[in-house]
Amino acid sequence: MGKVYPDAKAALAGALRDGMVILSGGFGLCGIPSLLIEAIRDSGVKDLTIVSNNAGIDDAGLGLLLQTRQVRKMVSSYVGENATFARQYLAGELEIEFNPQGTLAERIRAGGAGIPAFYTKTGVGTAVAEGKPTAEFDGETYVQERGIVGDLAIIHAWMGDTEGNLVYRRTARNFNPVMATAAKLTVAQVEHLVQPGDLDPDHIVTPGIFVKRLIQCPPGYEKRIEQRTVRKREPATAATGEEV
Predict the structure, then answer these.
(1) Do the beta carbons of residue 152 and residue 183 sit within 8 Å?
(2) 19 burial class (0-12, 13-18, 19+ CB within 10 angstroms)?
(3) Tens digits of residue pLDDT in 39-48
(4) Which of 232, 179, 236 lies closest to 206, judged by CA?
(5) What is the pTM of this model?
(6) Which residues are CB-neighbours of 112 under 8 A, at least 6 positions away?
(7) The total number of structural domains that make up the chain
(8) CATH number of the domain that 205 lies in?
(9) Could you tell me which SUPFAM superfamilies the record lists for this protein (predicted)?
(10) CA 13 from chain center: how many Å?
(11) What DSSP character marks residue 227?
């Protein structure tokens, strides 16, 4: 059977269950697998543990799963843009496992590499290290962090071929490549789908061996901007020294 599916619902068929651990790529709303997130919402699965750098915003990204109360626990490094998350956490309705951002990335990378645990200085002496083993190396204290392996990884790529080889675009790469390696099943959504041999091998970041299913984003697919910030345009006279 080929790896390409007609839509997100079909790509996730048989892969979802209550209580599973899902790795979700993206940073803010950049590079998020929004179509796959919507399909998870529509499936109705619940009690999910979501591993993601952040929790989206109230009406987009993983915020959609929080609105429907399908998430039991978030493993994240930043959640400050989501008021729904804050309300549920403060009400005791949502668990949170905070990680320093670099530690989160390394935990996922370690999981994908088959490394069960590693030591880092980040978080030593803080609440992050509470209840975790520590060890001394060269006279310094380090805290042990466990690798993360998910049941499912959902990721977004700029371009992919039908064999699952993926290319990312600039900062939309973020957490997607490490998550693609660290789950029992990886499903990708791609903006542009090409044939094997069309991708420059030097540009492939995620080899197709890690990707079992993928979909192509339809025409008109919307990529939301979390915070639009633009520089105030300077008058032409100030920029060029010439009158206009």
Answers:
(1) yes
(2) exposed
(3) 999 999 999 9
(4) 179
(5) 0.89
(6) 149, 178, 179, 180, 181, 182
(7) 1
(8) 3.40.1080.10
(9) NagB/RpiA/CoA transferase-like
(10) 20
(11) S
